[in-house]
Write a structure and sequence with these properties.
Blueprint lengths: L7 H5 L4 E5 L15 E5 L8 E3 L4 E3 L3 E6 L7 E8 L7 E8 L3 E5 L3 E10 L8 E7 L12 E3 L4 E3 L3 E6 L7 E8 L6 E8 L3 E5 L4 E10 L8 E7 L8 E4 L4 E3 L3 E7 L8 E10 L6 E8 L3 E5 L4 E11 L11 E5 L2
Parallel strand pairs: 4-10, 12-18, 20-26
Antiparallel strand pairs: 1-2, 3-5, 5-8, 6-7, 6-9, 9-10, 11-13, 13-16, 14-15, 14-17, 17-18, 19-21, 21-24, 22-23, 22-25, 25-26
């Protein structure tokens, strides 16, 4: 038996879940309705804990990894940082919605307060708070340079690549090093005394690299901040179509497409599937275009129509293959 909820309050308090729906269903004597629906966990009473920095931390370190506990049922976390406090806010430094439990930010000497809460489409947790005081120091030993671009584990295909980083307070210059394959081995670039916050390098060959930057002044220096990078300017191999075969006649309007594609060096590619409806005596119409990473796709089409399909591969650096040969098929009525 179904329990009938007679009012809004009873409905909303019926369980720990909030019912979210894109439609309203009305029930009449002989009419029933249905719609797509989903439930969001009620996380309002869950407690989030800030793990780092500890509340009341006093330090000369400028760059911090803000870290908090995860909440089951939270889709994202809102992090806010102000100075000097939320009760006496002078500057809002950060207000970001994040999908992880960590965030790296470089601050400056001063007094700060941060807060974090978990969120989903229906609920939010209470805020968790932590305070932080950063004092000025010319000693760079415990500082680190925040790298900007290329991004962590980036694949790039440009001929000219900008290596850039954030300014570090009390730093007078920076050193840039680039190694092939592994950090500390096969030095490609070793440049010191850089005053700017970035350099452009041309014509680096295609391969894997590690690049890093350190800062220094007259009395101290940081360790290197480093990250991997791949330069790849070679397009993926041309994809080959497998099914449906050319001129195939199908009885099912739910069509399973399969193909083969490959990047000869770095393996991973995304494939764009393009489907066109062929219309006799009229202009053909593209009816589907989407990317896939599994070399197969299932698409619902219409009976009694003729289609063509083709694939183009795109690698991690953005290089595009040539478009595959086109194959046609017909779906029976």
């Amino acid at each position: 038996m179904f329990q009938i909820l007679t009012n809004k309050k009873e409905f909303m308090t019926y369980s720990k879940y909030r019912f979210i729906s894109g439609c309203v269903v009305f029930f009449f004597a002989n009419i029933t309705g249905a719609c797509s629906m989903f439930f969001e966990d009620d996380i309002a009473d869950e407690e989030l804990v800030i793990l780092a920095p500890a509340d009341g931390t006093t330090t000369e370190v400028l760059t911090h990894t803000f870290w908090w506990s995860t909440i089951v049922g939270a889709d994202s976390y809102r992090l806010q940082i102000v100075s000097p406090s939320f009760d006496e806010t002078e500057v809002l430094l950060l207000d970001s919605l994040l999908d992880s439990d960590k965030f790296v930010e470089t601050l400056y000497p001063g007094q700060f307060q941060l807060r974090v809460r978990g969120e989903n489409n229906g609920y939010v947790t209470e805020w968790a708070y932590s305070s932080l005081i950063i004092f000025s120091s010319e000693d760079l030993t415990r500082q680190r340079v925040q790298l900007k671009s290329p991004a962590e584990k980036a694949f790039v295909n440009a001929e000219s690549i900008e290596f850039s980083w954030d300014h570090l307070m009390n730093a007078e210059s920076y050193d840039l090093k680039i190694y092939g394959d592994n950090w500390g081995q096969d030095a490609i670039v070793d440049s010191s005394g850089i005053i700017e916050l970035g350099v452009n390098l041309d014509n680096l060959e295609e391969r894997a690299y590690w690049w890093g930057v350190k800062a220094q002044n007259e009395t101290s220096e940081t360790l290197f901040s480093n990250r991997p990078l791949v330069i790849d300017r070679t397009p993926p191999e041309n994809p080959t179509l497998e099914s449906p075969q050319n001129n195939a006649i199908l009885s099912d309007s739910t069509v399973v497409f399969s193909w083969d594609s490959n990047d000869p060096v770095w393996s991973k590619v995304l494939d764009e599937l393009i489907i066109v409806e062929k219309r006799e005596g009229a202009t053909d119409v593209q009816v589907h275009s989407d990317t896939y990473d599994g070399k197969t796709a299932t698409v619902n089409l219409f009976r009694g129509r003729k289609y063509s399909w083709k694939i183009q591969s795109i690698d991690q650096a953005g290089n595009e293959s040539e478009i595959s040969n086109e194959q046609q098929f017909t779906i029976n009525n």
